[in-house]
Amino acid sequence: MSDGFRLDEARALLLRTPRVLEAWLGGLPDAWLHVTEGASTWSPFDVLGHLIHGEETDWIPRARIILGDAADKTFPPFDRTAMFEASRGKSADVLLERFATLRAESVRTLDGWTLGDADLARRGVHPAFGEVTLRQLLATWTAHDLGHLAQVARAMAKRYREEVGPWRAYLSLMDWKD
Amino acid sequence: MSDGFRLDEARALLLRTPRVLEAWLGGLPDAWLHVTEGASTWSPFDVLGHLIHGEETDWIPRARIILGDAADKTFPPFDRTAMFEASRGKSADVLLERFATLRAESVRTLDGWTLGDADLARRGVHPAFGEVTLRQLLATWTAHDLGHLAQVARAMAKRYREEVGPWRAYLSLMDWKD
Protein backbone atom coordinates (compact mmCIF):
# COMPACT_ATOMS: atom_id res chain seq x y z
CA MET A 1 0.00 0.00 0.00
CA SER A 2 1.11 3.52 -0.72
CA ASP A 3 0.31 6.67 1.22
CA GLY A 4 0.03 8.67 -2.00
CA PHE A 5 -3.26 7.20 -3.21
CA ARG A 6 -6.56 8.43 -1.82
CA LEU A 7 -9.74 7.22 -3.41
CA ASP A 8 -11.58 10.52 -2.95
CA GLU A 9 -8.81 12.38 -4.75
CA ALA A 10 -8.66 9.90 -7.63
CA ARG A 11 -12.46 10.08 -7.88
CA ALA A 12 -12.34 13.88 -8.16
CA LEU A 13 -10.20 13.60 -11.29
CA LEU A 14 -12.10 10.66 -12.79
CA LEU A 15 -15.33 12.63 -12.49
CA ARG A 16 -13.85 15.65 -14.25
CA THR A 17 -12.32 14.02 -17.32
CA PRO A 18 -15.53 13.99 -19.41
CA ARG A 19 -16.18 17.65 -18.58
CA VAL A 20 -12.63 18.58 -19.52
CA LEU A 21 -12.99 16.84 -22.86
CA GLU A 22 -16.41 18.39 -23.51
CA ALA A 23 -15.02 21.87 -22.81
CA TRP A 24 -12.05 21.18 -25.05
CA LEU A 25 -13.38 19.15 -27.96
CA GLY A 26 -17.10 20.03 -28.09
CA GLY A 27 -17.76 21.84 -31.37
CA LEU A 28 -14.05 22.07 -32.16
CA PRO A 29 -13.11 22.26 -35.87
CA ASP A 30 -12.34 18.90 -37.50
CA ALA A 31 -8.80 20.05 -38.23
CA TRP A 32 -8.11 19.73 -34.48
CA LEU A 33 -10.33 16.73 -33.76
CA HIS A 34 -8.74 14.56 -36.41
CA VAL A 35 -5.14 15.68 -36.31
CA THR A 36 -2.62 12.95 -35.54
CA GLU A 37 1.12 12.94 -34.92
CA GLY A 38 1.72 10.84 -38.05
CA ALA A 39 1.11 7.23 -39.09
CA SER A 40 -0.09 4.89 -36.31
CA THR A 41 -0.72 7.74 -33.86
CA TRP A 42 -4.05 8.83 -32.47
CA SER A 43 -6.15 11.92 -32.99
CA PRO A 44 -8.19 13.52 -30.19
CA PHE A 45 -11.19 11.76 -31.80
CA ASP A 46 -9.38 8.40 -31.53
CA VAL A 47 -8.55 9.09 -27.88
CA LEU A 48 -12.23 9.66 -27.14
CA GLY A 49 -13.12 6.27 -28.61
CA HIS A 50 -10.30 4.63 -26.64
CA LEU A 51 -11.57 6.14 -23.38
CA ILE A 52 -15.08 4.86 -24.15
CA HIS A 53 -13.73 1.38 -24.78
CA GLY A 54 -11.85 1.55 -21.47
CA GLU A 55 -15.07 2.28 -19.59
CA GLU A 56 -16.83 -0.58 -21.35
CA THR A 57 -14.22 -3.28 -21.01
CA ASP A 58 -11.28 -2.30 -18.85
CA TRP A 59 -11.45 -0.35 -15.57
CA ILE A 60 -14.66 -1.29 -13.80
CA PRO A 61 -14.80 -4.77 -15.37
CA ARG A 62 -11.28 -5.46 -14.05
CA ALA A 63 -12.21 -4.08 -10.63
CA ARG A 64 -15.18 -6.47 -10.64
CA ILE A 65 -12.85 -9.39 -11.30
CA ILE A 66 -10.65 -8.34 -8.37
CA LEU A 67 -13.63 -7.95 -6.04
CA GLY A 68 -15.41 -11.08 -7.28
CA ASP A 69 -15.25 -14.67 -6.10
CA ALA A 70 -13.83 -16.39 -9.17
CA ALA A 71 -10.72 -18.50 -8.56
CA ASP A 72 -9.05 -17.25 -11.71
CA LYS A 73 -8.64 -13.47 -11.45
CA THR A 74 -6.81 -13.00 -14.73
CA PHE A 75 -8.04 -9.95 -16.66
CA PRO A 76 -8.96 -10.42 -20.31
CA PRO A 77 -6.49 -8.44 -22.47
CA PHE A 78 -7.56 -4.88 -23.30
CA ASP A 79 -7.86 -4.10 -27.02
CA ARG A 80 -6.13 -0.73 -27.36
CA THR A 81 -7.33 -0.17 -30.92
CA ALA A 82 -10.93 -1.38 -30.76
CA MET A 83 -12.14 2.21 -31.13
CA PHE A 84 -11.10 2.52 -34.76
CA GLU A 85 -14.00 0.26 -35.69
CA ALA A 86 -16.38 1.32 -32.90
CA SER A 87 -16.07 5.08 -33.56
CA ARG A 88 -16.50 4.86 -37.32
CA GLY A 89 -19.18 7.23 -38.64
CA LYS A 90 -19.88 8.78 -35.23
CA SER A 91 -19.45 12.47 -34.42
CA ALA A 92 -17.18 13.72 -31.67
CA ASP A 93 -20.22 15.11 -29.87
CA VAL A 94 -21.84 11.68 -29.79
CA LEU A 95 -18.63 10.18 -28.41
CA LEU A 96 -18.31 12.93 -25.79
CA GLU A 97 -21.84 12.24 -24.59
CA ARG A 98 -21.27 8.50 -24.57
CA PHE A 99 -18.08 8.85 -22.58
CA ALA A 100 -19.76 11.18 -20.07
CA THR A 101 -22.60 8.69 -19.57
CA LEU A 102 -20.29 5.72 -19.15
CA ARG A 103 -17.90 7.51 -16.81
CA ALA A 104 -20.75 8.71 -14.62
CA GLU A 105 -21.95 5.10 -14.38
CA SER A 106 -18.43 3.92 -13.57
CA VAL A 107 -18.09 6.44 -10.75
CA ARG A 108 -21.52 5.47 -9.40
CA THR A 109 -20.43 1.84 -9.37
CA LEU A 110 -17.20 2.77 -7.62
CA ASP A 111 -19.10 4.81 -5.02
CA GLY A 112 -21.51 1.92 -4.46
CA TRP A 113 -18.63 -0.33 -3.43
CA THR A 114 -17.55 1.97 -0.54
CA LEU A 115 -14.05 0.56 -0.78
CA GLY A 116 -11.78 0.46 2.25
CA ASP A 117 -8.07 -0.24 2.56
CA ALA A 118 -8.59 -3.99 2.70
CA ASP A 119 -10.50 -3.91 -0.58
CA LEU A 120 -7.89 -1.72 -2.23
CA ALA A 121 -5.24 -4.28 -1.34
CA ARG A 122 -7.11 -7.13 -3.11
CA ARG A 123 -5.45 -8.52 -6.19
CA GLY A 124 -6.10 -9.57 -9.75
CA VAL A 125 -3.79 -10.89 -12.43
CA HIS A 126 -2.79 -8.67 -15.32
CA PRO A 127 -2.18 -10.70 -18.50
CA ALA A 128 1.29 -9.13 -18.96
CA PHE A 129 2.36 -7.99 -15.48
CA GLY A 130 0.99 -10.64 -13.16
CA GLU A 131 -0.43 -9.67 -9.77
CA VAL A 132 -1.69 -6.12 -9.33
CA THR A 133 -3.80 -4.55 -6.61
CA LEU A 134 -7.12 -2.77 -6.91
CA ARG A 135 -5.34 0.33 -5.61
CA GLN A 136 -2.88 0.13 -8.51
CA LEU A 137 -5.72 -0.37 -10.99
CA LEU A 138 -7.56 2.73 -9.74
CA ALA A 139 -4.38 4.84 -9.68
CA THR A 140 -3.69 3.70 -13.24
CA TRP A 141 -7.22 4.54 -14.38
CA THR A 142 -6.65 8.10 -13.13
CA ALA A 143 -3.15 8.45 -14.58
CA HIS A 144 -4.38 6.93 -17.85
CA ASP A 145 -6.95 9.73 -18.17
CA LEU A 146 -4.19 12.28 -17.59
CA GLY A 147 -1.92 10.60 -20.11
CA HIS A 148 -4.57 10.85 -22.78
CA LEU A 149 -5.39 14.46 -21.94
CA ALA A 150 -1.70 15.23 -22.44
CA GLN A 151 -1.77 13.24 -25.68
CA VAL A 152 -4.69 15.33 -26.97
CA ALA A 153 -2.71 18.49 -26.25
CA ARG A 154 0.38 17.05 -27.92
CA ALA A 155 -1.38 15.92 -31.10
CA MET A 156 -2.91 19.38 -31.50
CA ALA A 157 0.29 21.26 -30.62
CA LYS A 158 2.35 19.37 -33.18
CA ARG A 159 0.06 20.67 -35.89
CA TYR A 160 1.81 24.03 -35.32
CA ARG A 161 5.35 22.64 -35.21
CA GLU A 162 6.41 24.76 -38.17
CA GLU A 163 3.93 27.59 -37.65
CA VAL A 164 5.46 28.69 -34.36
CA GLY A 165 8.78 29.50 -36.04
CA PRO A 166 11.67 30.03 -33.64
CA TRP A 167 9.41 29.66 -30.56
CA ARG A 168 9.61 25.92 -31.11
CA ALA A 169 12.73 25.99 -28.91
CA TYR A 170 10.48 26.88 -25.94
CA LEU A 171 7.77 24.32 -26.65
CA SER A 172 9.03 20.97 -25.40
CA LEU A 173 5.64 19.37 -26.02
CA MET A 174 6.43 19.45 -29.74
CA ASP A 175 9.22 16.94 -29.22
CA TRP A 176 7.61 14.64 -26.68
CA LYS A 177 6.93 11.16 -28.00
CA ASP A 178 5.47 8.03 -26.44
CA MET B 1 3.51 32.15 -44.49
CA SER B 2 2.39 28.64 -43.75
CA ASP B 3 -0.76 26.88 -44.95
CA GLY B 4 -1.20 25.17 -41.59
CA PHE B 5 -2.28 28.21 -39.60
CA ARG B 6 -5.85 29.47 -39.75
CA LEU B 7 -6.88 32.21 -37.40
CA ASP B 8 -10.40 30.84 -36.89
CA GLU B 9 -9.00 27.48 -35.84
CA ALA B 10 -6.46 28.99 -33.44
CA ARG B 11 -9.21 31.18 -32.00
CA ALA B 12 -11.40 28.12 -31.35
CA LEU B 13 -8.72 26.66 -29.08
CA LEU B 14 -7.78 29.96 -27.42
CA LEU B 15 -11.43 30.47 -26.46
CA ARG B 16 -11.70 27.01 -24.93
CA THR B 17 -8.62 26.98 -22.68
CA PRO B 18 -10.25 28.77 -19.71
CA ARG B 19 -13.26 26.43 -19.90
CA VAL B 20 -11.00 23.38 -20.00
CA LEU B 21 -9.13 24.59 -16.93
CA GLU B 22 -12.35 25.43 -15.09
CA ALA B 23 -13.73 21.95 -15.79
CA TRP B 24 -10.47 20.38 -14.68
CA LEU B 25 -9.26 22.47 -11.74
CA GLY B 26 -12.43 24.08 -10.37
CA GLY B 27 -13.02 22.70 -6.86
CA LEU B 28 -10.24 20.14 -7.24
CA PRO B 29 -8.52 18.98 -4.01
CA ASP B 30 -5.38 20.93 -3.10
CA ALA B 31 -3.31 17.76 -3.37
CA TRP B 32 -3.79 18.02 -7.17
CA LEU B 33 -3.75 21.80 -7.49
CA HIS B 34 -0.44 22.19 -5.73
CA VAL B 35 1.43 19.10 -6.83
CA THR B 36 4.71 19.75 -8.66
CA GLU B 37 7.22 17.52 -10.40
CA GLY B 38 9.92 18.43 -7.87
CA ALA B 39 12.04 21.48 -7.10
CA SER B 40 11.75 24.36 -9.60
CA THR B 41 8.79 22.82 -11.40
CA TRP B 42 5.27 24.17 -11.56
CA SER B 43 2.01 23.02 -10.06
CA PRO B 44 -1.33 23.36 -11.90
CA PHE B 45 -1.89 26.41 -9.66
CA ASP B 46 1.41 27.93 -10.83
CA VAL B 47 0.44 27.29 -14.46
CA LEU B 48 -2.79 29.22 -13.94
CA GLY B 49 -0.86 32.22 -12.68
CA HIS B 50 1.56 31.97 -15.58
CA LEU B 51 -1.30 31.95 -18.10
CA ILE B 52 -2.80 35.03 -16.43
CA HIS B 53 0.52 36.84 -16.64
CA GLY B 54 0.75 35.92 -20.33
CA GLU B 55 -2.62 37.55 -21.02
CA GLU B 56 -1.56 40.66 -19.15
CA THR B 57 1.89 41.17 -20.59
CA ASP B 58 2.71 38.82 -23.44
CA TRP B 59 0.37 37.79 -26.25
CA ILE B 60 -1.91 40.71 -27.03
CA PRO B 61 0.65 43.31 -25.90
CA ARG B 62 3.18 41.81 -28.32
CA ALA B 63 0.61 41.70 -31.11
CA ARG B 64 -0.05 45.39 -30.44
CA ILE B 65 3.64 46.13 -30.88
CA ILE B 66 3.66 44.28 -34.21
CA LEU B 67 0.54 46.09 -35.43
CA GLY B 68 1.60 49.49 -34.07
CA ASP B 69 3.56 52.30 -35.65
CA ALA B 70 6.62 52.41 -33.39
CA ALA B 71 9.97 52.20 -35.19
CA ASP B 72 11.36 49.83 -32.58
CA LYS B 73 9.25 46.69 -32.51
CA THR B 74 11.28 44.81 -29.93
CA PHE B 75 9.12 43.00 -27.37
CA PRO B 76 9.88 43.53 -23.70
CA PRO B 77 11.09 40.23 -22.17
CA PHE B 78 8.38 38.04 -20.65
CA ASP B 79 8.84 37.18 -16.97
CA ARG B 80 8.11 33.46 -16.80
CA THR B 81 8.02 33.38 -13.00
CA ALA B 82 6.12 36.57 -12.17
CA MET B 83 3.14 34.50 -11.04
CA PHE B 84 4.83 33.19 -7.91
CA GLU B 85 4.44 36.64 -6.38
CA ALA B 86 1.19 37.61 -8.14
CA SER B 87 -0.71 34.43 -7.19
CA ARG B 88 0.29 34.44 -3.55
CA GLY B 89 -2.70 34.13 -1.21
CA LYS B 90 -5.23 33.73 -4.04
CA SER B 91 -7.46 30.70 -4.50
CA ALA B 92 -7.45 28.62 -7.67
CA ASP B 93 -11.06 29.63 -8.27
CA VAL B 94 -10.12 33.31 -8.22
CA LEU B 95 -7.31 32.63 -10.69
CA LEU B 96 -9.61 30.61 -12.95
CA GLU B 97 -12.09 33.45 -13.06
CA ARG B 98 -9.38 36.02 -13.68
CA PHE B 99 -7.92 33.97 -16.52
CA ALA B 100 -11.36 33.50 -18.10
CA THR B 101 -12.02 37.24 -17.99
CA LEU B 102 -8.63 38.16 -19.43
CA ARG B 103 -8.76 35.54 -22.17
CA ALA B 104 -12.24 36.63 -23.22
CA GLU B 105 -10.94 40.22 -23.49
CA SER B 106 -7.92 39.03 -25.48
CA VAL B 107 -10.11 37.17 -27.96
CA ARG B 108 -12.41 40.21 -28.27
CA THR B 109 -9.38 42.34 -29.07
CA LEU B 110 -8.18 39.80 -31.61
CA ASP B 111 -11.61 39.71 -33.24
CA GLY B 112 -11.75 43.50 -33.37
CA TRP B 113 -8.59 43.58 -35.47
CA THR B 114 -10.15 41.44 -38.28
CA LEU B 115 -6.68 40.34 -39.29
CA GLY B 116 -5.93 39.34 -42.87
CA ASP B 117 -2.92 37.61 -44.39
CA ALA B 118 -1.02 40.86 -44.81
CA ASP B 119 -1.44 41.63 -41.11
CA LEU B 120 -0.38 38.13 -40.10
CA ALA B 121 2.84 38.57 -42.06
CA ARG B 122 3.80 41.73 -40.14
CA ARG B 123 6.83 41.45 -37.90
CA GLY B 124 8.12 42.27 -34.47
CA VAL B 125 11.42 41.56 -32.81
CA HIS B 126 11.69 38.90 -30.13
CA PRO B 127 14.36 39.73 -27.55
CA ALA B 128 16.05 36.33 -28.00
CA PHE B 129 15.02 35.15 -31.49
CA GLY B 130 14.95 38.32 -33.56
CA GLU B 131 12.27 38.82 -36.22
CA VAL B 132 9.03 36.90 -35.83
CA THR B 133 5.67 37.29 -37.56
CA LEU B 134 2.27 37.94 -36.04
CA ARG B 135 1.23 34.56 -37.48
CA GLN B 136 4.04 32.87 -35.52
CA LEU B 137 3.08 34.76 -32.35
CA LEU B 138 -0.56 33.63 -32.62
CA ALA B 139 0.38 30.03 -33.42
CA THR B 140 2.72 30.09 -30.40
CA TRP B 141 0.01 31.49 -28.15
CA THR B 142 -2.18 28.52 -29.09
CA ALA B 143 0.57 25.92 -28.77
CA HIS B 144 1.66 27.50 -25.47
CA ASP B 145 -1.83 26.88 -24.05
CA LEU B 146 -1.62 23.25 -25.16
CA GLY B 147 1.86 22.87 -23.68
CA HIS B 148 0.63 24.03 -20.31
CA LEU B 149 -2.48 21.82 -20.45
CA ALA B 150 -0.14 18.89 -21.03
CA GLN B 151 2.06 20.11 -18.18
CA VAL B 152 -0.93 20.16 -15.81
CA ALA B 153 -1.70 16.55 -16.77
CA ARG B 154 1.94 15.57 -16.31
CA ALA B 155 2.37 17.17 -12.88
CA MET B 156 -0.76 15.40 -11.65
CA ALA B 157 0.09 12.04 -13.26
CA LYS B 158 3.56 11.94 -11.70
CA ARG B 159 1.94 12.04 -8.29
CA TYR B 160 0.96 8.40 -8.98
CA ARG B 161 4.33 7.30 -10.34
CA GLU B 162 4.70 4.66 -7.65
CA GLU B 163 1.00 4.08 -7.04
CA VAL B 164 0.39 2.63 -10.52
CA GLY B 165 2.81 -0.25 -9.87
CA PRO B 166 3.80 -2.19 -13.00
CA TRP B 167 1.46 -0.16 -15.22
CA ARG B 168 4.08 2.56 -15.19
CA ALA B 169 5.60 0.85 -18.22
CA TYR B 170 2.50 1.88 -20.23
CA LEU B 171 2.36 5.48 -18.99
CA SER B 172 4.97 7.43 -20.93
CA LEU B 173 3.70 10.71 -19.48
CA MET B 174 5.39 9.74 -16.21
CA ASP B 175 8.79 10.01 -17.82
CA TRP B 176 8.27 13.09 -20.00
CA LYS B 177 10.36 16.05 -18.91
CA ASP B 178 10.75 19.57 -20.27
CATH fold-level label of chain A: Four Helix Bundle (Hemerythrin (Met), subunit A)
Rg estimate of chain A, integer Å: 18 Å
Helix-strand pattern of chain A: HHHHHHHEEH
- N-to-C CA distance of chain A: 28 Å
The total count of strands of chain A amounts to 2
The average pLDDT of chain A is 95
Query: What CATH architecture of chain A would you give?
Result: Up-down Bundle
Strand order of the largest sheet of chain A: 1-2
Give me the oligomer status: homodimer
The secondary structure category of chain A is: mainly alpha
Low-confidence stretches of chain A: none
Number of helices of chain A: 8
- Helix fraction of chain A by DSSP (H/I, runs of at least 4): 55-70%
Which chains make the largest contact? Answer: A-B, 57 and 56 residues
Domain count of chain A, please report it. 1
Shape of chain A: elongated
Compile the SSE list and pairings.
The structure is a homodimer of 178-residue chains.
Chain A: H1 7-25, H2 30-33, H3 44-57, H4 59-67, H5 83-86, H6 92-113, H7 117-120, E1 123-126, E2 130-133, H8 134-158
Helix pairs in contact in A: 1-6, 1-8, 3-4, 3-6, 4-8
